Structures are given as C-alpha cells and as structure tokens.
Amino acid sequence: MSAQIAVANALPAALDHYARELGQTLERIGVTDSLLGVSPVEGLDGFRGRARMLTNALANRSLRSRHGGPVLDLWPSLGLLEARSVSAPRSPQLLVLHDPVPLRRQVGFGPLVTRWAASAPSKKRPTIVVHSHAADRVVEELLPQHVRRFALHPVLSHEPIGAESLSNTVLIAGQFKPARDVELIAALGRLLPQHGLRGRIVGRGWPDLAGWEVENRFVPESELDELLASASAVVLPYSHYFQSGIAVRALENGTLTVGRRTDFLEVLVGRRSPSLVDSGTAHAYARAIVETVSLDRSGATQALGDFRRRVDESWNALLGELAGDYRA
Fold first, then answer.
1. Domains in the chain, start-ordered, CATH in brackets?
2. CB 3.0–4.6 Å: which of 37, 119, 251, 273 could bond 269 by disulfide?
C-alpha cells in the first residue's frame, strides 16, 4: 500500500522505542511516515513546568488540526480531552489510546471529562486506535459515538537479539504502578528460589520486596535491551492491563513474557504458550515461569515472527479502511 501519514509524538523520550517500532512497522507495509513538529509534553517539573506542558499540548492540538494530511497522534497528552480534538474534513486524525483506563494517575481522565469527550460532535471526533480488544471494549463504553480502529502494538523488523548466556533471572521491568499486583509478586519471591531462579525488579518507584533484588532506579534505553535479553523470562504481574510495550520489547530481544491470559498476550506469545497463566495464584505463575525458562530461544523466534505478521496485517487493515484519505 502506497500511503503517507504524519506522526505526532509529544513524548519523544518516553515513546522513543514505540516510535521506532511504529516507523519500522509502517515501512514494512509500504507507508511513508513523517514526524510532525509538535512540542514535547514531558520532563518539566514544578508549576511552571506543568504550565508549559499544558501550553504545548494545546498548541499541538492546533498544529494537528491545521496539518494538510492525515495525522497519527501517539499519545493523548490531555487524556480523553484529546478525544474531542478538531479534524479537518479531508485530513483524518487518529489518536492511539494505549490505556483507556490509566494504570496510574494521568491528566484528563474522570467522569466529567469522559462525558464531555463522548458528547463531541462528529466533526471533532478523532478516530481512536487501540492495541487490544480489551481496550476496544472499554473505549466503546466510554466513547460510544467515536470511530474505533484496532491495530496491534507495533514491533521492530529485526530478528531476536538474545543473549549468549542466560542468567536464570526472572525479570520485572518498568516503573511501579498501582495496577501492579504486589501480593502476587511477594508470593513469587518466596517460590522462585525453590526452583533455582533469581527474581529481579528494575524500575522507578518500587518498594523492597522479600525474595526479589529490587533496583529502584530509572533504566536508560541503552541498558533496557540488555536486561531483557539476558533474562530467562519476563513477568507481567498486573491486576489489569491492556497491552505491554515491555513484553513486546522483551520478545524483540528473544525473551518470552509470563502473564495473565489476555487477548494481547495470546497474540504476542501464542494461544497455546506455557507462558500464559489462567489462574491468578502465585503457584500458577511459578509453574508458567518454570516452563517458560525451560524453553530454548527458538520459541521466542517463532513467536516474534508470528506476531510481526499479525501486526502488519492489522496496520494494513487499519490504513486500508481509510485508503481514500491516505493515498500519496
């Protein structure tokens, strides 16, 4: 498909890897993307910093509306307020809504904002893009009049990197969020050593947890791939989630993720994968971890190839439905 689309990324640091995954995904399906010059909405502290980020977010909305072609916005800087942005008649605007119910506190969500966004006239409704069917169901409930489109989380084009030797480490990566199941993690901390496994948590905001080596710190991009590649398995211990960029990135590095069975994880690792957990108990997670650790890297290579194929199909379908507006 020959097409062009502008990408708006107001979180250039936080979404750096996601933007690269998207760029390579679009390239595989023949879509040319250009970066829309929006202002960053991240990394500024204090009252003046928040005021500047709000000003930038509002200016970005105006810039997207004035753009002469289709725009894909990678993050709702103002939460569901972005679901009432202005779209030019011949310039479709797509908004990626990663977590319609945020996993941690985020501006622009709540009953009043949701009702206001849901009441947007048709000409002010961007198309909402979701990466999981679970997210789609929530968006349908929150914004029933908006057009919704499904496309899987994008993925890099290269084959799994992997590590020359595995460390027998079970890794939880990423910052702490209230949606993390701390009781489950604590119980796993008691079980993993019984199987000769080392539990490690690396990310900001984590409390100390017995049985885990906790590193409460920011993980730079240059280190994250190395951590994921050297782990024997990554664990996704959420009470609820919609999709996980860490799980996708782990697979790009040859490492499978263990987590509760969801439509997202089924597509990522395969419906019959031993990494899928059907019970929320620590013993069920431990069994899945042990089975996952026992697999060789070929399982991750196969899963990545299958996932990439489905990713490309989903983005082809998404942009193909709007082909009349996306032709170069």
1. 3-156+308-326 (3.40.50), 169-296 (3.40.50.2000)
2. 273
At a CB cut-off of 8 Å and minimum separation 6, what does 194 contact? none
Positions of E strands within 179-274: 198-203, 212-216, 233-236, 257-260
Tell me, what's the pLDDT at 34?
A: 87
Sequence-distant (≥ 6) Cβ neighbours of residue 296 within 8 angstroms: none
Residue of 136, 145, 143 lying closest to 98 (CA atoms): 136
- Segment-wise mean pLDDT, segments of 10 residues, the chain, 328 residues: 81 93 95 82 64 68 76 89 70 88 77 90 90 96 94 93 73 92 96 96 95 94 91 93 95 95 96 94 96 88 95 93 52
Query: Residue 46's pLDDT is what?
Result: 63
> pLDDT at position 92, please?
79
Residue 267: count other Cβ atoms within 10 Å of its Cβ.
Answer: 21
Question: d(Cα 225, Cα 230) in Å, to the nearest integer?
Answer: 9
d(CA 130, CA 132): 6
Amino acid at 238: Y
Sheet arrangement for strand 212-216? 212-216, 198-203, 169-173, 233-236, 257-260, 276-277
Among candidate residues 96, 111, 178, 104, the one with its CA nearest the CA of residue 141 = 111
DSSP-derived letter for residue 79 is G
Check: CB of residue 105 under 8 Å from CB of residue 205.
Answer: no
- Encoded tokens for 21: 């995954």
pTM attached to this predicted model: 0.91
